[in-house]
Design goal:
The complex is a heterodimer.
Chain A: E1 4-15, E2 19-30, E3 34-38, H1 45-52, E4 60-65, E5 68-69, H2 74-80, E6 81-84, H3 96-106, H4 111-124, H5 140-151, E7 158-162, H6 170-187, E8 190-195, H7 198-204, E9 207-212, E10 215-220, H8 222-228, E11 232-238, H9 245-250, E12 254-260, E13 263-268, H10 271-284, E14 289-295, H11 299-307, H12 318-331
Parallel strand pairs in A: 3-8, 3-9, 6-7, 7-8
Antiparallel strand pairs in A: 1-2, 1-4, 4-5, 9-10, 11-13, 11-14, 12-13
Helix pairs in contact in A: 3-4, 3-5
Chain B: H1 15-27, H2 30-50, H3 66-74, H4 79-97, H5 99-108, H6 111-116, H7 122-150, H8 163-186, H9 193-208, H10 221-229, H11 231-243, H12 249-278
Helix pairs in contact in B: 1-7, 2-4, 2-7, 4-7, 4-8, 4-11, 5-7, 5-8, 7-8, 7-12, 8-11, 8-12, 11-12
The chains are: A alpha/beta, B mainly alpha.
């Protein structure tokens, strides 16, 4: 098997001949990594995932999962992937156990094996105590875990997660992250996920692709991306009124200095090491530093840098909005 | 993982699981199940007993025997029996019409997309909807016969309990045909209102432009033309031939052929259209 589990080349999806949701996208996902698609709503994340999981056919370009072409060998792809959709798809009128068994049946897994796996998976997602309860009484976190169990029933080699923590509260989100990390660590699974939460991409993903208006603007590990911005931001103020920009600029690793309303905004690599040097340099010249703060860049700054805007809610289709609203509502039950 | 190679499964895997999922919503929900039993009782009581057409014919006119008049127009002397059988077609129409709704719900809740990402065949996804509506209607048809018998249904001359199997057969055909069409109509809609509007628009006209509650021969010509192509007319006639008329086998064969053709054509069109839509 090749190192590249998912590969997309010039992947394009056009709806109704004029709405380009995904625009000539290239990327590859390596064996055993968590790869994140980060972007605002309507950027093309879900469309990309739907092409990869064979629900939509690409208009142009191609993509493969474990060497199988998603358009021509979709049957093979479906057998080896697991999908955890954005929505809560479990049937509310059925019990947790019945839902997982239904998923097993859709993969054609023989009943005996299906039962063993269902027990095992319900244990994994800690729903064993609720397996005979109807899903309508499940909380958002429980539903999300049940979706996870369904997505794992065919022991997939690649798992696709579409907005895995949409609408969940902070604790439940952290718990979901732990399950995802566990899958990577214990099962060596390759995971492809979409998210519009920056901190989620930062916490989970080995590599992130930032997508905006259907195009990938940058790919890299969160560390690389943040580092690529040119370092940390140091803000400092001094007692005196003189302009000391020139002295600061001479300190090693300082890349840029701006004076704003009497304080200085300094862009510097290795901020936590550089800051003491700046203080030292200023003190030697007889200046007194009165305040100092250090900000490490987050993916938000990365996002801002590449798309020129903060993660915002783009306009989206009525259907997508309704579906998302429903998901959020059920998550908060 | 490798134990799951594609060859070990039949093309139809998942059909029963998906069908049963639909049926469970019905038979595991006591209220819905009970309502689906009460509904035909209400309708039969209201339409069959309240609107006793036989009572409209005066009995004091010499030479007019209400029984003979009814026999000549309805084919049976008892309007209740005539109507109760019409209820069976009515149930087929109503149950299958709502099969389209569950497709819309599956789309909105994302279940459809999930199913599409599994190796289950597209045709199976659609056919499970068809099959669940069909099985429900067949069960209700059996129930209506039992209730109608309790209310005094008069069986035709030469009736044998085996004929009930014929009723199930014709119900199977008409329901497969009707629900395939309704699913093809609704599969594209993303909102629940659209199929509701479609259902409301066509169900009553389709029902009354058939012989379910009234014999077609007294309808105006234009209505007769519609009734003549309406598969519900043939379904109702088949059920009447089997249950309350002295069976005319040629007519029954014609009914079965017509409804059978309708089922094949409708199911083919419905499944092909839905399939193409699902693999866009």
């Amino acid at each position: 098997m090749s190192e590249e589990v998912i590969k997309a080349e010039g992947l394009t999806k056009v709806f109704n001949k004029h709405l380009t949701a995904v625009d000539h996208v290239d990327f590859s996902v390596k064996q055993g990594e968590i790869f994140g698609f980060l972007g605002p709503n309507g950027a093309g994340k879900t469309t990309t995932i739907n092409v990869l999981i064979t629900i939509l056919k690409p208009t142009e370009g191609k993509a493969s999962v474990l060497g199988f072409d998603v358009a021509k060998q979709n049957g093979n792809v479906r057998n080896v992937i697991g999908v955890v959709p954005q929505e809560y798809t479990a049937d509310e009128d059925l019990t947790g156990l019945e839902n997982v068994l239904l998923c097993a049946d859709m993969y054609g897994i023989p009943r005996r094996i299906a039962k063993e796996r269902t027990e095992e998976l319900l244990r994994l997602v800690e729903l064993t105590d609720f397996k005979d309860k109807k899903v309508q009484i499940f909380s958002g976190g429980m539903r999300r875990r049940l979706e996870l169990a369904c997505g794992l029933i065919n022991r997939p080699k690649v798992l696709f997660l579409d907005e895995p923590t949409l609408g969940l509260d902070v604790q439940t989100r952290a718990a979901t992250w732990n399950y995802i990390r566990k899958l990577k660590k214990e099962y060596g699974m390759t995971l492809f996920m979409t998210t519009h939460y920056l901190e989620e991409a930062d916490a989970l993903c080995d590599r992130v692709a930032i997508i905006d208006h259907g195009k990938i603007v940058v790919v890299g590990s969160p560390e690389e991306l943040k580092h690529g911005l040119g370092g940390d931001i140091i803000t400092l103020g001094i007692k005196e009124d003189d302009d000391v920009s020139e002295f600061i600029r001479k300190v090693e690793h300082v890349k840029d200095v701006k004076r704003e309303n009497g304080s200085y905004r300094i862009k510097a690599e290795y901020g936590e090491i550089t800051a003491p040097f700046i203080i030292e340099a200023l003190r030697k010249k007889g200046y007194t530093v009165t305040k100092l703060s250090l900000t490490e860049p987050t993916l938000n700054e990365v996002y801002l840098e590449y798309t020129g805007k903060s993660l915002r809610d783009a306009e989206e289709s009525r259907e997508a909005f309704a579906a998302q609203r429903m998901t959020m509502r059920r998550a908060r039950q | 993982m490798s134990e799951l190679n594609g060859n070990s499964k039949s093309k139809l895997h998942g059909l029963w699981a998906l069908t049963n999922r639909e049926l469970k919503k019905w038979y595991k929900a006591p209220v819905i199940f009970l309502l689906s039993i009460i509904q035909p009782i209400l309708w039969m009581g209201l339409l069959g007993k309240a609107m006793n057409i036989g009572a409209l014919i005066p009995t004091n006119i010499p030479g007019v025997n209400p029984e003979t008049v009814l026999k000549g127009t309805l084919g049976t002397s008892d309007y209740f029996s005539f109507m109760a059988v019409g209820m069976i077609s009515f149930t087929a129409l109503f149950t299958t019409m709502f099969s389209g709704m569950s497709v819309v719900w599956d789309r909105r809740l994302g279940f459809l997309n999930k199913a599409l990402s599994t190796p289950v065949s597209r045709a199976v996804i659609i056919f499970s909807k068809v099959l669940s509506a069909t099985l429900r209607s067949m069960f209700q048809a059996g129930l209506i016969i039992l209730i109608a018998v309790a209310f005094g249904l008069q069986f035709g001359v030469g009736f044998s309990p085996l004929y009930v199997l014929g009723v199930f057969a014709i119900m199977f055909l008409i329901c497969v045909g009707l629900s395939s069409i309704f699913i093809a109509i609704t599969i594209r809609s993303t909102r629940i209102e659209t199929p509701m509007a479609v259902v409301n628009l066509i169900n009553l006209p389709l029902m009354f432009a058939s012989n379910a509650f009234f014999p077609t021969k007294f309808m105006p010509d234009w209505l007769q033309t519609i009734a003549k192509v309406n598969p519900l007319t043939y379904t109702t006639d088949a059920v009447r031939q089997l249950l309350i008329f002295s069976t005319d086998w040629t007519q029954l064969a014609l009914d079965f052929t017509y409804v059978g053709m309708f089922a094949i054509v409708a199911a083919t069109i419905g499944i092909v259209l839905s399939w193409r839509y699902l693999s866009k």
